Every structure is written in structure tokens, then in C-alpha cells.
Amino acid sequence: MNAPERNIPLLRVQRLQKHFKVGRNAMLHAVDDISFDIAPGESVGLVGESGCGKSTLSRVIARLADPTSGALQFEDVDLAVHPAAKFARDSRRGVIQMVFQDANDSLNPRYTAFDTIAESLRLLVGMKDAAQIKARVEELATWVGLPVDLLSRYPHQLSGGQKARVGIARALAPSPRLLILDEPTAALDVSVQATVLQLLAELRDKLGVAYLFVSHDLNVVRLLCDRVVVMYLGKVVEEGPAEAVFTTPRHPYTQALVAAIPDPDARGRKTVRAEGEPRSPINPDPRACRFHGRCPKGEPKCELTMLDLKEVAPAHRVACHFA
Amino acid sequence: MDMKHFKYVLKENPVTGFAFVLFGLFVLLAIFGPLIAPFDPLDSNAGEPLTPPSAQNWFGTDSFGRDIFSRVIIATRLDFGIALSAVLISFIIGSSIGCAAGFWGGWLDRVSSRVADTIMAFPLFVLAMGIVAALGNTVGNVIYATAIINLPFYMRVARAEANVRRNAGFIEAARLAGNHDVRILAVHIFPNILPPMMVQVSLNMGWAILNAAGLSFIGLGVRPPEAEWGIMVAEGATYIISGEWWVALFPGAVLMLAVFCFNLMGDGLRDLIDPRRRT
After folding, report:
1. Chain A residues touching residue B181 (CB < 8 angstroms)
2. Chain A closest CA to B84's CA: distance in Å?
3. B171 vs chain A: nearest CA distance in angstroms?
4. N or C: chain A end with fewer CB closer than 10 Å?
5. What CATH architecture does domain B3-36+74-277 belong to?
6. How far is A313 from chain B (nearest CA, A)?
7. Quick check: A102 contacting B, CB < 8 Å?
């Protein structure tokens, strides 16, 4: 895996918050004060359990939803200032694209594969010439390994893997700098998953596009990502190089996550487990560590002060008293 | 919509084929009626008054001696014209409002849903009578009245169908591809809700014809001596007791056939425009 330069980030997520009003005086803190960087060409894994806010965070970064506060510094401009509704027509719409989890649901049933891939070429890239569009669509199809003669098919005439390839080709069409992959293989057969992951790794090396890979499959993240951001209940609890996070996880939650990866060699070994239910994300106590209560190491002080991320090793940051 | 798919749908569902043929015949009658009809529909010398069906007057004659066969044919254009224009108006207005309400929600949704509820709260035929009585007894007003009472059905179907799709993955993907809201509605949502809307259109055509005929039957809308199925049934109704059954039966039977044809066409139309039905 190549080590990209980390001095000029492609995207700088700064103190991003996304709160939803869920009732009188009740705010759900889906994304709470999150900051991290993505370097050009870098693959960042975003992991966490269901409901931890990783999908909301990726939708805000993709500018499909507006953040409550915070900045999304993309190179030299703050994209968070544009309302999501207006951003669709922004000239920078093409720089951040997304591959959706459910390839079936994310394709218009009345659009052929060709129409789906060509749409952003017409709307965002401004291509008008039919021959030029055709050439580009066929190029994209070849990149993602979709036979060109399948381009005239409708989604229901394609297999799950083929639909996933159409989704990837569509996302790549406007030449994005950052591709958000929201569990792109979750809905696929295991055999197809492997080929799609292989394809994603090849495309990254070929195109130099940065990935934000959202997943709860840690093995996939370890395989594909340079760096990992671990989220728990709207907060980043640990962030660092993929190898470091997986071999020496510092935060108890990350330790529990890593310990939960099925590993035949680890049978009988004592592992860290998170017991009980997560705390409520609605009006959370701003002082208490979100993991307190489930945390095997928890002490009374965890209830009184929540630490910010602190550096424990080069580029490896953890938010825990015991790290 | 290519021929291959058209043929496939007809082969899968022969009843649909029958309905399309019947619809084609009605359209031909509506266009070429005056050329086909053996007599002038207003000519009271087509035969003796109230003669039963014969070789000269296939459907018999009415109390004025007018040829019922010719009048039934001539009436096709008027009845289909009223039904088509009414359905077209309520389809265009109802589906645009319904789509927008389902997609954006908010005050537009609340206001339009309450308006639809208000219309539906009236017995629809009585509402149509009221509208025609208030606006005046013309063909135009029959069309508007029919369009208004059918409006809620389109609004509701379009609203529900747009609402379930507004958070679909392909809508989010369309935003990423640079579509603004109005374009998403027109290009991504509307074509996808057309198949269920088509079923509604087809069923509505039947109702619209019945409604127009019903208004004329009770003396609103189209006025005698104009040839119209509803009026002809109304005129014939008085003669059924005295044994002259043909005066009301033939226009009534053709009216029934037209409604029947539209009801059968619904599913076929949906299959034709739904790409998922393609093999």
C-alpha cells in the first residue's frame, strides 16, 4: 500500500456536527464534533456499529445532507456553506461521489446502464456530443469490468455484481477526487464481494482517487484502507494507520471490535467484550464518555470527563483515559 | 416502446389484446362516425317512429323516427371527447400536484391533501351535478366537473408513489449526478410512477364516460336533440315499460362496452410502459 503525503489534505472534516430534532427538547446527536483528514489518493476506513452515525457522516460529507455545524474544507473551499439542495448544481458536485450500499435501489429502474452512467457526464461534465459521451461511458464500463453490450440493459436485467459495477462506473463518471463507498459489498454474494473489492483496489491505484470506505466488515477495511477512523455513538474514539489500529488497538471499543473479528487461531483466548446496550444518542451527557457503561475498563472519572483525541503514537489518536 | 415488447404483452394477456382492439374500434367510430353512420343522427325520417330493429334500422328507431344505430355511432365522438379531455386534465393537474406533494411534503402536501379530502367528502356525482348546475349547462362544464371529481384519485396515487420513492437510493444518486429537485421530479420520479397511474387513467376513463352519460341522463350537460349515450338511455327509459326495449338497450349496451373496454385496458397499459415487464 502506498503511503500518500499527508501534508496537504484533500478533505478536512472540521468539528462536524449533525443533530436531528426528535421531539420537544430532544436532540439526537448522530455526528458529534468529528474532525479528521483525508489525503489525496488515501483510503480511509470508517468503521463502527449500526447506528453509530457513520452513514449520516458519509451523507453529510457527500453533501446529500446539511451539517448542523462545522466545516468541510475541500482543498481550499468550505463545501459545508453550500446548502445540500443547491449543491446539486455546484461546479464542484462532481468532486465527491458516492457508491451506495444497495446497488439495486440506487439504480433508476427506467434507466438503462448507459443512461445511468451518462447522466452526470451530461449534467456535471457538460458533454454534449453523443459520440463523445458514448466513448466515455464505454471507457468507464471497461474500467469497472462491465461488458459493453450490457450497457443497453435495464437494472432488472442485470445481476447483483453487474449492478454494483454500474454503480461504481456512475460514481467515477464525473472524475471525482473523493469516492465515498457506503458498504458497497454488503448486499452482494461473498464470491462477488471479493471481485468487487479487487476492482475497487485496482481502480484506486489506477485513478488515484481517495476513498472513504464505510463498513462494519473490519477484514475488508484492513485489506483496502491506509487509515481507519473508528466511530462510536457519533464520536471518533480512535483514529490511526490501519495496521496500528488492528494490531494494537488502544481504545476499549476498538479492542472489542477487533476481538470480534472471527479468527480460528484465537479460540479459547480471552477477549475484550462490550457488554450491554449502547447509551442513548439523544441528549447525551456532554461530560461522560459515550462508551461508559459498556466499557470493561470504565471508572467513575469516565462519567465526569470525556477526553478529546490525543496522540498515543505517530498519527495514532485515541480518546480514552486508559490509552 | 418497441413492437417486440408490445407483441409480448399482447401474447401474455389476450384479454388486453381484445380490449385494445375494442378501443381501436371506438376510436375509428369517433373519427369516421359521420362517414359510417347510414343516416343523419337528427333526421326524423329514417323510419317509422319506434320501429323495432330491422334490416333498414339495425338498432330500430326512437320516438321521433331517428335511426338509433346512426345516433349511437355519432355519439361516440362526443362521449369519448368528454371522457378523454376530462381524464387528461385531471391526470396532468392531479399527478403534478400529487408528485410535488409526495416529494417535498410540508405545507404543499398538507394543503393539497386536505383539498383532496374535501372533494372526496362529497358524493362525487352530486358534486359534479352541482358544478354543472352552477357553471352552466355546457359540454365544457361537464368536462371540468368530471375532471374535478376525478382529481383526488390522481393526487393520491401520485402522492403515495412519489412519497415512497423520495428517499430511494436512485434519487440520492441522481442528486450526486447533478440533478436539481425539479429535474428529479420530472425525469426520475414521474416516469417511475407512470405504470400505476396508467391503471388509474384507464379505470377513470370508464368512470368519466359513465359520469358524462349520467349527467346527460338527468338533464345536465349535453342537451337534446344532440346524440349522446346518456340522453338516449334517458329518452328510451320511458319506453321500456311499453315494450320498446331497443330505444334504451342499444345505447346502454354500447356505453357498457366502452366502460368494460377501459377497465380491461388498465393492466395492459401498465405492462406496456413498465420496463420491468420486459424480458
Report:
1. 85, 88
2. 27
3. 7
4. N
5. Orthogonal Bundle (1.10)
6. 37
7. yes
Query: CB of A100 within 8 Å of any CB in chain B?
Result: yes
Contact B77, B30 (CB under 8 A): yes
Lowest mean pLDDT across A83-92, A268-277, B87-96 = A268-277
Question: Residues B63-68: contacts with CB within 8 Å, 24+ apart?
Answer: B63/B235, B63/B239, B63/B247, B64/B225, B66/B39, B66/B41, B66/B42, B67/B37, B67/B38, B67/B39, B67/B41, B67/B43, B68/B232, B68/B246, B68/B247, B68/B250, B68/B251
Question: Mind listing the pLDDT tens digit for each residue in A102-135?
Answer: 888 999 999 999 999 999 999 988 888 999 999 9
CB pairs below 8 Å between A and B: how many? 77
Q: Which residue of A has its CA nearest to B171?
A: A106
Residues B176, A93: C-beta atoms closer than 8 Å? yes
CB contact under 8 A, B178 and A100: no
Q: Does the distance separating the beta carbons of B174 and A64 come in below 8 Å?
A: no
Q: What is the pLDDT of residue A261?
A: 81
Q: Which cell numbers hold the place of A108? A: 433508476
Give the closest of B169, B170, B275 to A154, CB-based: B275
Give residue A43's pLDDT band: very low, low, confident or very high (50, 70, 90).
very high
Angle at the Cα of B185 (from B182 to B191), degrees rounded to 5?
140
Interface of B with A (CB under 8 A): 168-170, 172-181, 188, 191-192, 275-276, 278
- Between CA A273 and CA A291 the distance in angstroms is 12
Give the residue extent of every domain in chain B. Answer: 3-36+74-277
Residue B242 pLDDT = 85
Q: What is the pLDDT of residues B41-82, one digit of tens each?
A: 887 777 787 788 888 888 888 888 888 899 999 899 998 999
CATH 3.90.1150.10 at A11-318, yes or no: no
Question: Do the Cβ atoms of B176 and A97 come within 8 Å?
Answer: yes
> What cell does A196 get?
468487487
CB contact under 8 A, A110 and B178: no
**Nearest CB to A124 within list B177, B191, B192:** B177
Q: What ipTM score was computed for the predicted complex, to two decimals?
A: 0.86
